[in-house]
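Summary for the funding panel

The consortium committed to producing paired sequence-structure records for every protein in the target list. Below we show the first two records in order, beginning with the earlier of the two.
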Amino acid sequence: MTTLNSVPLTLTVNGQAHALDIPVQATLLDVLRERLHLTGTKKGCDHGQCGACTVLMDGEPHLSCLTLALSAQHHEIGTIEGLSAPDGELHPMQAAFLEHDAFQCGYCTPGQILSAVACVECGHAENDAELRDFMSGNLCRCAAYPQIFEAVKSVAGERR
């Protein structure tokens, strides 16, 4: 039921359409976490500076804390919950993060992994400088950067 302060919205998240009524000002992050209960996407700084809220929109990384949910309509949204196979098999990037111990506290990990997937799929992991530049929007307070870069490079190497 649409109220005066809400609007209808259909979001396609991880391949599934969701019909919602949301406040006009709702961010994609808040809709994912509070309405769809997809809590893998984290609220870090809530100002677009840390990358913890990174999701994929049509295969490209987007900061969901700065994205109005209404602007995500007619786009395919991917979250960490939708990355692994239906049978539970990990995505190669998830497996690489485990193999390279590319996390400590894990708070930034979902955003890091989604950015890393886009980095490799969009061809931005050809050299260290390009990889660092692409991943620079995702901060890790635990300083697991060397392991993160090795994980991304290992997946990029397998794809070549």
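The next record, for a separate protein in the list, is shown here:
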Amino acid sequence: MTSEFDAALLGQTDLLHLPDGRALLLPIARWSATPCPADEQLLRRCTGPVLDLGCGPGRLVTALGRRGVIALGVDSSPVAVRLTTDRGGAALCRDLFDRLPAEGRWQQILLADGNIGIGGDPVVLLRRVHRLLSPTGHALIEVEPPGTGLRRERVRLTGSDFDWAWVGADAIGLLAVVTGFRVTELLDHSGRWFAVLRKEVRDDATTATG
């Protein structure tokens, strides 16, 4: 989530407006509910420590904490952070591109609920995720169904314009390659799709000959 989503989190709107005049219905109820079976595709792969980027109202961070998994949410929305802490989760109000705790040491990073779209440039975002993860860590990313490809739009929410992106299951593989990852799992549960990305291991050692 970003600070533009404050109105949605407060129940003032649930429509994201696209440049062509269409409006997308935001799943506010799901963001604010307890984790559903599809969310378990992410949660059961988290051993911690976990960084949830764009944590929103904190359903995943809170669920992980209750399971004894170290987890921290990050969101630029003060409303989202307050909602998360009110539920008992740990969250930090900060832009995810600003300095964050334990950079390079997180074992899992979550980009759930379409948050791969934050900023409108998934390549820049995945490179940021790569720097935040430990060498053995992995990213757990919710993507769009196959056939979506990669889309970028200037969208509007309650009068604020901002850049957003959508990444389909058919596009995440190429994005992974160009950002230093490889896709190790692609999962479908009840129409929601998830990708597991691990850092690509490169052997930079040179062998002397002759």
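Regarding this second record: The chain has one domain: 3-199. Residues 3-199 form a domain with the Rossmann fold fold (CATH 3.40.50.150).
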